[in-house]
Amino acid sequence: MKISFAKATVPTEGALVVGVLEDRVLTPTAADIDARTQGLIARAMAASRFEGKRDQTLLLLAPAGLELARLLLIGLGKAADIDAKVAQSFGGGAVAQLQGAGDQVVAIAADAIAGAPIGAADFAANAALGARLRSYRFDKYRTREKKEEKPSVKKLSVLLSDVTAAKQAYQPLDAVADGVFLTRDLASEPANVIYPESLAAKAQTLSELGVEVEVLSEKQMRKLGMGALLAVGQGSEKDSQMVVMQWKGAGTDEAPVAFIGKGVTFDSGGISIKPAAGMEEMKTDMGGAAVVIGLMKALALRKARVNAVGIVGLVENMPSGNAQRPGDVVTSASGQTIEVINTDAEGRLVLADALWYAQDRFKPRAMVDLATLTGAIVISLGDYYAGLFANNDDLAERLLGAGAKVSEPLWRMPLDDQYDKQIKSDIADMKNTGGREAGSITAAMFLKRFVKDTPWAHLDIAGVTWSKKDLAVTPKGATAFGVRLLDRLVADHYEQK
Ligand code: BES
Ligand code: MN
Ligand code: ZN
Known about the structure:
The chain is of the alpha/beta class. The chain has helices at 28-36, 40-46, 84-98, 120-134, 163-188, 196-204, 218-223, 227-233, 287-301, 347-362, 375-381, 393-405, 439-448, 483-494, and strands at residues 2-7, 15-21, 25-26, 57-61, 70-77, 105-109, 155-160, 212-216, 241-248, 257-267, 307-317, 329-331, 337-339, 366-371, 386-390, 410-412, 430-431, 456-460, 466-467, 477-478. Helix 9 (287-301) packs across helix 14 (483-494) and helix 12 crosses helix 14 (483-494).
């Protein structure tokens, strides 16, 4: 689907999408069309339950007096509440309704709306972003799909008067969408295609955009003492990898902000093997790493004025004659020893060494890790909020604010020392599970033992990385939850103005 911006005129083919405010108040284009068609829109609304409430839709076929195949009304709610998120779900809603309808050409009217806190150019740019994000589809393995099962929309134009301003506003948003699409592609790929080396190779392609990429081999990681990460990968035929990505957009002397991702390319559980039902979902256990890679792409594409480091620990967790065993004791890069009670609590072992390496080598201003870490966070928060754990209130507030702005909401969870006793071991410095109670918190407490005084936050994204249903700007499947959130965090707090 190709997206463009164009001067507002009533199109003569395909579909047109217009906004309607709450209580059936027409936006300028809707009013114009209503006037040209002897009140078609007013009559259609009167004959339906459509009131212009946010995300309501009403589709009119072959509207009399127009050459269009379809006229789609989408509710925008109250003018005073129209912000970037409303604009995005307006664009996303348009694509969701029309992509299977058969039209190849779609136009979206992005009028200036009196009384709205967002200007016309930003509204148009965000509508385009929502449309693009919602149009995502991972269909490379569907080789026998019929034409009528494929999305029909080829060209989408967003109509407004100040085309230049909208194009300018859209540029950085398009960069973020590129990052989101990379993340979704990586998380959608099966584990026979994406494994540590192939994922590292994908990350390496970011060097074309000016990102410095290094890949650490098992040998190099062994030298660095990363016994926790390496233990997870030792049962796999695939070699473990760590990828370090640096985007230097702010000059040399500024400490970077660091993003660390759990990249378990497949989590079978290891010797503590998972039940068969649903195990295929564990191809997405590299979701945190995919977010970090997509984020680095977005920052580079929009030339963000920030120094950012992305580090991903890539391993495959498999049972084999060489796999680690429950009861094994491993030594992490920090020197701390860990008793592995359950080989399925592997993400924290990977992050222990990745977090330690990030803080030791880069002395970051702040450090955020993302991980599909615990089933317990799915029980706590379901598929809407991701869990936020932080050792620093300012960083926590910044993340909560960024998440609210982009509809990737976070819920802060506790990280009190009280919970630390659950991971005391009789034989080593700690054990890798804290029992059933407060499972997400004890996982975070484990990570905390590998963080010194760097401001740090951990996002447990196990519940939000994959969606079983369509969302406003996200078709079901890989969500890339975290890319837009962390891009916003950087833009609002770590980027030079
Ligand atoms: N990758 C899983 C967590 C997960 C569960 C992600 C569901 C996405 C959906 C993680 O490695 C894991 O297996 N965690 C265990 C920890 C337990 C053994 C302490 C869990 O949550 O059951
Ligand atoms: Mn696991
Ligand atoms: Zn896992």
